[in-house]
Amino acid sequence: MNSIISEHRFTEVELSPLERQRYARHLSIPDVGLEGQRKLKASRVLCIGAGGLGSPVTMYLAAAGIGEIGIVDFDRVDYSNLQRQLLHDTSDVGKLKIESAIERLGAINPGVRVKAFETRLTSENAAKIAAPYDLIVDGTDNFQTRYLSNDLSVLTRKPNVYGSIFRFEGQVSVFAPHLGGPCYRCLFPNPPEPGQVPSCAEGGVLGVLPGIIGCLQANEAIKLILGLGDPLIGRLVHFDALAFRFREIKLRRDPQCAVCGENPTITELQDITFACDMNPSPSLPEIDVHQLKSRLEVGPLFVLLDVREPAEIEVARLDGSVVIPLGELPARLGELDPAVETIIHCKAGGRSAKALQILLDAGFTHVCHVKGGINAWSAEIDPSVPLY
Predict the structure, then answer these.
(1) Which member of 186, 260, 346, 368 is catalytic?
(2) Reported pTM
(3) Which of 200, 257, 260, 368 is the catalytic position?
(4) Is 346 a catalytic residue?
């Protein structure tokens, strides 16, 4: 495979004596050598996200000597990030992630330019942000941005180094229709509706997993830049950390794909909209944690339903709550009395809203959910309840 870096760009790049020392182990590899290191220095990589996947990707790309790393992120560092997002440390809590990313990557390799974009990637800014870069690394944590980054890479003819993680499993691929492979939409034409797939915050992720998957993404990016080996174009690698098993899945390009097919219907970038966004349901009945506290003080005249997972219950629980995990709720509705008021809560309010809709659809009328969930209770009512 040929390098994605044009020859005229890397032949104009020189390495300083200090850089020759820094990259000595690359220079001693016959397949990399001085020419390959020049390609790395001439390259520009855009990483969307500075979280679990973005941390190992950018750290190893910086160490490898990538010329410029662009990072798109608008989030701030939270304590819950520190278990896996090694770009950030405890002293960075509260900072913008791009700020701590710049500091960490600068400490790893001062010779690498880091350009930060403190913004959410949208159809309006994506093409302008990506224009100077040779490839895109997908470190996203939501489907709206994942589909947008895919469409961006297809329409701008830039390889998309994809990675995703959930609990103990991860996957990696390179989506590049212009290089003969499929795109992400060839596998999944449309994103799932909100709530169909648990988020990282809801489902959790093993701390080391993004390190493994992110390193594989960095490996694929370096191979594309150097023009070495067999990139994961037309192949997806699935990793199961518990079984320690890698499984390769062959992928085909879909001729009916909306963005890279024979007759594409997506010819310009557009933000993802969901049916529920276009036809919003009436506001769900909710109360805040202060109202819940007042209700609990009056007496147990209602059922307090906790729809979190058993492992979360072990971390934090409100006294007197009835536990039915959200995934089990449809099959266990018989355990609840429609004549008795039910107040539902979860970690932050997302799952309780879904549970509330399930109960409403089943004919329950005396129901509401707690805005902000048990985390809001911990923050605003009782700090002794662990915040996680």
Answers:
(1) 346
(2) 0.83
(3) 200
(4) yes
